[in-house]
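for the recovery benchmark. tokens below, seq after
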């Protein structure tokens, strides 16, 4: 009886080996399913979205609107001068009502209404100014008129394409409506190019001038005062009767052109 009991509880050796192999195979299969479990697993590459995040805008791609229109170049023009110099000075200083009231031809009338359009933004002013400018039949011949006509033409083109201008850029450095230059001198009291050599009176520099700071009279440097819109006056030193050369200067150097001032003996003591 004992012998038969032991034979029923013992597993055959071949079955034991099969069971062991099955358990080992299952363990290896489970390990193989885990990432990074073995040296043959491929490296894991991290995922990033940095390339999908938009960067800052390119400054070249930003639309800042049209560039500002260059303003009227300096004349020069003096309020004491007759038209059209006076009208040019009014346009440069945006005294629109005076230009409109003058009614001095289509160019300056257009200047007045377009000037008012700049100041007020009124559509009617722009429309009237554009209509008046279209009535300028021929290109003006004077340097101030030419500069005004060119500016107003650019202004209208800018308005029709972009609307009311918000700002203006300064004229380019050195740009003027007319060529600068000294053409003469005139005593303030007499208007003649002569003064007493004993008691010189103030003398005005004539021509088209901007930012004059000094004058040279017979080799002597004297200070020049701006007494109005481009109205430059100096007092010459005393001198012997005769003609002397006068030149004008800005901070950048000599102005083109020269003038002759005559010293007289008027009012000077005579005899011993």
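predicted aa per position
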């Amino acid at each position: 009886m004992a012998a038969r009991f032991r034979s029923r509880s013992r597993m055959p050796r071949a079955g034991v080996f099969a069971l062991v192999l099955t358990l080992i195979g299952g363990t290896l299969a489970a390990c193989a399913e885990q990432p990074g479990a073995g040296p043959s697993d491929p490296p894991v590459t991290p995922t990033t979205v940095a390339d999908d995040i938009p960067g800052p805008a390119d400054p070249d791609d930003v639309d800042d609107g049209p560039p500002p229109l260059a303003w009227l170049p300096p004349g020069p023009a003096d309020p004491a001068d007759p038209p059209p110099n006076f009208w040019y000075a009014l346009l440069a200083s945006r005294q629109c009502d005076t230009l409109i009231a003058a009614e001095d031809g289509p160019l300056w009338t257009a200047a007045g209404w377009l000037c008012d359009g700049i100041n007020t933004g009124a559509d009617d002013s722009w429309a009237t100014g554009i209509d008046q400018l279209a009535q300028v039949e021929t290109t003006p011949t004077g340097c101030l008129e030419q500069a005004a006509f060119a500016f107003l033409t650019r202004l209208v083109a800018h308005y029709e394409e972009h609307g009311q201008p918000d700002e203006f850029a300064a004229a380019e450095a050195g740009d003027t409506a007319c060529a600068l230059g000294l053409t003469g001198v005139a005593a303030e009291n007499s208007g003649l190019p002569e003064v007493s050599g004993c008691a010189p009176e103030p003398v005005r520099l004539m021509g088209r001038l901007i930012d004059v700071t000094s004058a040279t009279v017979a080799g002597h440097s004297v200070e020049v005062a701006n007494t109005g819109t481009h109205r430059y006056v100096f007092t010459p030193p005393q001198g012997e009767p005769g003609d002397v050369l006068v030149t004008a200067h800005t901070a950048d150097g000599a102005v083109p052109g020269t003038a002759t001032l005559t010293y007289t003996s008027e009012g000077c003591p005579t005899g011993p």
